[in-house]
Protein backbone atom coordinates (compact mmCIF):
# COMPACT_ATOMS: atom_id res chain seq x y z
CA UNK A 1 0.00 0.00 0.00
CA UNK A 2 1.27 3.48 -0.88
CA UNK A 3 2.07 5.55 2.20
CA UNK A 4 2.10 9.35 2.29
CA UNK A 5 3.16 11.85 4.91
CA UNK A 6 0.91 14.91 4.86
CA UNK A 7 1.90 18.30 6.25
CA UNK A 8 -1.37 19.01 7.95
CA UNK A 9 -2.34 22.51 9.06
CA UNK A 10 -5.93 21.43 9.89
CA UNK A 11 -7.17 24.09 7.45
CA UNK A 12 -9.51 23.26 4.59
CA UNK A 13 -6.76 22.76 1.99
CA UNK A 14 -4.97 20.09 3.98
CA UNK A 15 -8.26 18.41 4.93
CA UNK A 16 -9.08 18.20 1.20
CA UNK A 17 -5.69 16.70 0.42
CA UNK A 18 -6.29 14.06 3.06
CA UNK A 19 -9.60 13.17 1.38
CA UNK A 20 -8.09 13.19 -2.13
CA UNK A 21 -5.33 10.80 -1.13
CA UNK A 22 -7.59 8.52 0.89
CA UNK A 23 -9.93 8.27 -2.12
CA UNK A 24 -6.95 6.75 -3.95
CA UNK A 25 -6.49 4.20 -1.16
CA UNK A 26 -3.28 5.81 -0.02
CA UNK A 27 -2.43 5.42 3.65
CA UNK A 28 -1.86 8.90 5.03
CA UNK A 29 -0.09 9.97 8.18
CA UNK A 30 -0.65 13.62 9.10
CA UNK A 31 2.04 15.72 10.78
CA UNK A 32 1.56 19.12 12.26
CA UNK A 33 4.58 21.20 13.33
CA UNK A 34 4.49 23.71 16.17
CA UNK A 35 6.72 26.49 17.49
CA UNK A 36 6.36 29.37 19.93
CA UNK A 37 4.71 31.32 17.08
CA UNK A 38 2.06 28.79 16.04
CA UNK A 39 0.60 25.69 17.65
CA UNK A 40 1.26 22.16 16.50
CA UNK A 41 1.96 18.68 17.75
CA UNK A 42 5.60 18.17 16.72
CA UNK A 43 7.83 20.80 18.27
CA UNK A 44 10.40 22.36 15.93
CA UNK A 45 10.68 25.53 18.02
CA UNK A 46 14.45 25.79 18.46
CA UNK A 47 15.27 25.26 14.78
CA UNK A 48 12.49 27.60 13.78
CA UNK A 49 13.73 30.32 16.12
CA UNK A 50 17.05 30.41 14.26
CA UNK A 51 15.37 31.20 10.95
CA UNK A 52 13.12 33.83 12.54
CA UNK A 53 16.24 35.59 13.81
CA UNK A 54 18.15 35.23 10.57
CA UNK A 55 16.10 34.16 7.57
CA UNK A 56 18.03 33.26 4.45
CA UNK A 57 15.18 34.07 2.08
CA UNK A 58 13.65 37.22 3.54
CA UNK A 59 10.41 37.97 5.35
CA UNK A 60 6.79 38.66 4.47
CA UNK A 61 4.84 41.70 5.63
CA UNK A 62 5.67 41.00 9.26
CA UNK A 63 8.56 39.07 10.80
CA UNK A 64 7.33 35.91 9.06
CA UNK A 65 10.16 34.11 7.24
CA UNK A 66 7.75 32.02 5.17
CA UNK A 67 10.17 30.59 2.62
CA UNK A 68 12.63 29.50 5.30
CA UNK A 69 9.75 28.18 7.39
CA UNK A 70 8.34 26.06 4.54
CA UNK A 71 11.81 24.80 3.79
CA UNK A 72 12.43 23.83 7.41
CA UNK A 73 9.12 21.94 7.56
CA UNK A 74 9.91 20.12 4.32
CA UNK A 75 13.34 19.12 5.60
CA UNK A 76 11.86 17.87 8.88
CA UNK A 77 9.18 15.97 6.98
CA UNK A 78 11.83 14.45 4.71
CA UNK A 79 13.69 13.12 7.77
CA UNK A 80 10.49 11.45 8.99
CA UNK A 81 9.69 10.12 5.51
CA UNK A 82 13.09 8.47 5.23
CA UNK A 83 13.14 7.17 8.78
CA UNK A 84 9.63 5.73 8.73
CA UNK A 85 9.49 4.59 5.11
CA UNK A 86 6.84 6.79 3.48
CA UNK A 87 6.65 6.94 -0.32
CA UNK A 88 6.21 10.70 -0.60
CA UNK A 89 5.27 13.94 1.13
CA UNK A 90 2.05 15.80 0.39
CA UNK A 91 1.03 19.36 1.24
CA UNK A 92 -2.11 21.46 0.85
CA UNK A 93 -0.19 24.19 -0.97
CA UNK A 94 -1.97 25.90 -3.83
CA UNK A 95 -0.08 27.67 -6.61
CA UNK A 96 -0.25 31.49 -6.22
CA UNK A 97 -2.44 31.35 -3.13
CA UNK A 98 0.04 33.47 -1.21
CA UNK A 99 2.16 36.00 -3.03
CA UNK A 100 5.28 35.58 -0.90
CA UNK A 101 5.89 31.87 -0.82
CA UNK A 102 3.50 30.01 -3.09
CA UNK A 103 4.31 31.22 -6.57
CA UNK A 104 4.96 28.24 -8.82
CA UNK A 105 8.67 28.96 -9.16
CA UNK A 106 8.92 29.34 -5.36
CA UNK A 107 7.25 25.98 -4.78
CA UNK A 108 9.65 24.31 -7.17
CA UNK A 109 12.63 26.13 -5.70
CA UNK A 110 11.80 25.03 -2.14
CA UNK A 111 11.24 21.47 -3.27
CA UNK A 112 14.72 21.47 -4.80
CA UNK A 113 16.30 23.11 -1.76
CA UNK A 114 14.74 20.46 0.47
CA UNK A 115 16.10 17.76 -1.83
CA UNK A 116 12.60 16.45 -2.43
CA UNK A 117 12.30 16.78 -6.21
CA UNK A 118 9.78 14.26 -7.45
CA UNK A 119 8.71 13.27 -3.95
CA UNK A 120 6.63 16.28 -2.98
CA UNK A 121 3.03 16.20 -4.16
CA UNK A 122 0.62 19.14 -3.99
CA UNK A 123 -2.61 17.40 -4.98
CA UNK A 124 -4.68 20.60 -5.23
CA UNK A 125 -2.33 22.12 -7.84
CA UNK A 126 -0.57 19.00 -9.13
CA UNK A 127 -1.76 19.41 -12.71
CA UNK A 128 -0.12 22.83 -12.87
CA UNK A 129 3.19 21.44 -11.68
CA UNK A 130 5.65 18.98 -13.24
CA UNK A 131 4.69 15.33 -12.90
CA UNK A 132 6.31 13.86 -9.79
CA UNK A 133 8.16 10.54 -9.57
CA UNK A 134 5.31 9.10 -7.48
CA UNK A 135 2.83 9.92 -10.26
CA UNK A 136 5.15 8.53 -12.93
CA UNK A 137 5.50 5.30 -10.96
CA UNK A 138 1.72 5.04 -10.70
CA UNK A 139 1.66 5.31 -6.90
CA UNK A 140 -0.72 8.25 -7.33
CA UNK A 141 -3.22 8.68 -10.16
CA UNK A 142 -2.48 12.12 -11.65
CA UNK A 143 -5.80 12.18 -13.50
CA UNK A 144 -7.57 12.38 -10.12
CA UNK A 145 -5.55 15.39 -8.93
CA UNK A 146 -6.41 19.07 -9.44
CA UNK A 147 -5.30 22.29 -11.15
CA UNK A 148 -6.38 24.86 -8.57
CA UNK A 149 -4.51 28.16 -8.34
CA UNK A 150 -4.91 31.60 -6.77
CA UNK A 151 -6.50 33.05 -3.67
CA UNK A 152 -10.12 32.42 -4.60
CA UNK A 153 -11.35 29.49 -2.56
CA UNK A 154 -14.42 28.71 -4.66
CA UNK A 155 -13.01 25.45 -6.05
CA UNK A 156 -11.96 24.26 -2.60
CA UNK A 157 -15.45 24.98 -1.26
CA UNK A 158 -17.01 23.03 -4.15
CA UNK A 159 -14.64 20.15 -3.48
CA UNK A 160 -15.53 20.21 0.21
CA UNK A 161 -19.17 19.79 -0.79
CA UNK A 162 -18.30 16.90 -3.11
CA UNK A 163 -16.50 15.17 -0.25
CA UNK A 164 -19.53 15.74 1.98
CA UNK A 165 -17.64 17.97 4.39
CA UNK A 166 -20.24 19.93 6.28
CA UNK A 167 -18.11 21.70 8.82
CA UNK A 168 -14.62 22.80 8.15
CA UNK A 169 -12.36 25.53 9.45
CA UNK A 170 -12.03 28.78 7.50
CA UNK A 171 -8.49 29.65 6.42
CA UNK A 172 -6.58 29.93 9.65
CA UNK A 173 -4.52 32.96 10.58
CA UNK A 174 -2.69 30.92 13.16
CA UNK A 175 0.84 32.26 12.85
CA UNK A 176 1.52 35.26 15.09
CA UNK A 177 4.52 36.24 12.95
CA UNK A 178 2.13 37.74 10.40
CA UNK A 179 0.59 40.00 13.06
CA UNK A 180 1.66 43.62 12.63
CA UNK A 181 1.77 44.62 16.29
CA UNK A 182 3.49 41.42 17.41
CA UNK A 183 6.05 41.73 14.61
CA UNK A 184 6.85 45.29 15.64
CA UNK A 185 7.57 44.13 19.19
CA UNK A 186 9.54 41.11 18.04
CA UNK A 187 11.69 43.30 15.79
CA UNK A 188 12.45 45.51 18.76
CA UNK A 189 13.30 42.47 20.86
CA UNK A 190 15.63 41.20 18.13
CA UNK A 191 17.35 44.60 18.00
CA UNK A 192 18.03 44.73 21.73
CA UNK A 193 18.66 41.03 22.23
CA UNK A 194 19.61 39.09 19.08
CA UNK A 195 19.84 35.94 21.20
CA UNK A 196 16.27 36.03 22.43
CA UNK A 197 14.70 32.76 23.61
CA UNK A 198 11.41 31.00 22.96
CA UNK A 199 10.27 32.18 26.38
CA UNK A 200 10.95 35.82 25.32
CA UNK A 201 9.09 35.36 22.04
CA UNK A 202 6.17 33.70 23.82
CA UNK A 203 5.79 36.24 26.59
CA UNK A 204 5.57 38.98 23.94
CA UNK A 205 2.25 37.42 22.92
CA UNK A 206 0.80 38.46 26.26
CA UNK A 207 -0.57 41.73 27.59
CA UNK A 208 0.52 45.25 26.74
CA UNK A 209 4.16 45.39 25.74
CA UNK A 210 6.57 48.27 26.45
CA UNK A 211 10.29 48.58 25.99
CA UNK A 212 12.54 51.02 27.73
CA UNK A 213 16.15 50.74 26.64
CA UNK A 214 17.03 47.07 27.10
CA UNK A 215 14.14 46.36 29.46
CA UNK A 216 10.82 44.78 28.59
CA UNK A 217 7.60 45.45 30.53
CA UNK A 218 4.49 43.33 30.04
CA UNK A 219 1.25 44.49 31.65
CA UNK A 220 -1.50 41.87 31.94
CA UNK A 221 -4.94 42.74 30.63
CA UNK A 222 -6.92 40.56 33.03
CA UNK A 223 -6.52 38.21 35.95
CA UNK A 224 -6.05 35.10 33.82
CA UNK A 225 -3.28 36.76 31.85
CA UNK A 226 -1.68 37.90 35.10
CA UNK A 227 -1.49 34.28 36.26
CA UNK A 228 -0.12 33.24 32.87
CA UNK A 229 2.58 35.89 33.04
CA UNK A 230 3.78 34.40 36.31
CA UNK A 231 4.48 31.09 34.56
CA UNK A 232 6.99 32.86 32.28
CA UNK A 233 9.18 34.06 35.15
CA UNK A 234 12.86 33.28 34.71
CA UNK A 235 15.97 34.24 36.67
CA UNK A 236 16.45 38.03 37.01
CA UNK A 237 12.78 38.79 36.13
CA UNK A 238 10.69 40.86 38.49
CA UNK A 239 6.95 40.27 38.75
CA UNK A 240 4.65 42.82 40.40
CA UNK A 241 1.03 42.38 41.42
CA UNK A 242 -1.43 44.42 43.50
CA UNK A 243 -1.90 43.12 47.03
CA UNK A 244 -5.01 44.99 48.20
CA UNK A 245 -6.74 46.29 45.06
CA UNK A 246 -7.80 44.97 41.66
CA UNK A 247 -5.30 45.71 38.93
CA UNK A 248 -2.90 44.20 36.42
CA UNK A 249 0.32 42.30 36.99
CA UNK A 250 3.60 43.49 35.50
CA UNK A 251 6.46 41.34 34.34
CA UNK A 252 9.80 43.15 34.04
CA UNK A 253 12.65 41.55 32.12
CA UNK A 254 16.02 43.18 31.62
CA UNK A 255 18.31 42.08 28.79
CA UNK A 256 21.40 43.59 30.34
CA UNK A 257 21.95 43.49 34.08
CA UNK A 258 19.61 42.98 37.02
CA UNK A 259 16.43 45.02 37.16
CA UNK A 260 17.33 48.27 38.98
CA UNK A 261 15.18 49.93 41.65
CA UNK A 262 14.38 52.74 39.18
CA UNK A 263 13.06 50.20 36.71
CA UNK A 264 10.97 48.55 39.43
CA UNK A 265 9.48 51.98 40.23
CA UNK A 266 8.67 52.39 36.55
CA UNK A 267 6.93 48.98 36.62
CA UNK A 268 4.90 50.05 39.65
CA UNK A 269 3.90 53.27 37.84
CA UNK A 270 2.64 51.20 34.93
CA UNK A 271 0.73 48.91 37.28
CA UNK A 272 -0.97 51.93 38.86
CA UNK A 273 -1.62 53.57 35.50
CA UNK A 274 -3.60 50.53 34.33
CA UNK A 275 -5.52 50.00 37.59
CA UNK A 276 -8.99 51.48 37.90
CA UNK A 277 -9.23 52.26 41.63
CA UNK A 278 -6.23 52.71 43.89
CA UNK A 279 -6.73 52.82 47.66
CA UNK A 280 -4.64 55.30 49.64
CA UNK A 281 -2.81 52.51 51.46
CA UNK A 282 -2.18 50.51 48.26
CA UNK A 283 0.38 47.73 48.40
CA UNK A 284 2.23 46.01 45.56
CA UNK A 285 3.78 42.58 45.90
CA UNK A 286 7.10 41.80 44.27
CA UNK A 287 8.27 38.31 43.20
CA UNK A 288 11.60 37.23 41.81
CA UNK A 289 12.83 33.81 40.81
S1 LIG B 1 2.94 32.28 8.06
FE1 LIG B 1 4.17 31.55 9.77
S2 LIG B 1 3.79 29.32 9.82
FE2 LIG B 1 3.14 30.06 7.82
S3 LIG B 1 4.93 29.77 6.52
FE3 LIG B 1 4.98 31.87 7.27
S4 LIG B 1 6.28 31.79 9.08
FE4 LIG B 1 5.64 29.69 8.63
- Span of the ends, CA to CA: 55 Å
| Assigned CATH class of the largest domain | Alpha Beta
> How do the helices and strands follow one another from N- to C-terminus?
EHEEEHHEHEHHHHEEHEEHE
Beta-strand proportion: 15-25%
Number of E-state strands? 11
Number of domains: 2
What does the model show?
- The chain has 289 residues and is an alpha/beta fold.
- It folds into two domains: 160 residues, Rossmann fold (3-Layer(aba) Sandwich), CATH 3.40.50; 83 residues, no CATH class.
- The chain is built from ten helices and eleven strands.
- The strands form three sheets. A five-stranded antiparallel beta sheet has the order 7-8-10-9-11, sandwiched between helices. It has a four-stranded parallel beta sheet with strand order 2-1-5-6, with helices on both faces. The chain has a two-stranded parallel sheet with strand order 3-4.
- Helix 3 crosses helix 4.
- The longest helix has 19 residues.
- The chain is elongated.
- The structure holds iron/sulfur cluster (SF4).
- The site of iron/sulfur cluster has 9 residues, from helix 3.
Amino acid sequence: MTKALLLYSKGLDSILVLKILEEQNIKVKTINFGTCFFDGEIDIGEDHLKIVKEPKYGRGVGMNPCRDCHLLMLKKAKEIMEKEGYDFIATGEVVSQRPFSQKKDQLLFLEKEADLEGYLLRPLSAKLLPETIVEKKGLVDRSKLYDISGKNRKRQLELAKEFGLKEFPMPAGGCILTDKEYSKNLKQLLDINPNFSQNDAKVLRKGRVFFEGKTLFIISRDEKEGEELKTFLIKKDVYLEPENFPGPSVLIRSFTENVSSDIIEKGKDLLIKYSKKIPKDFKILKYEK
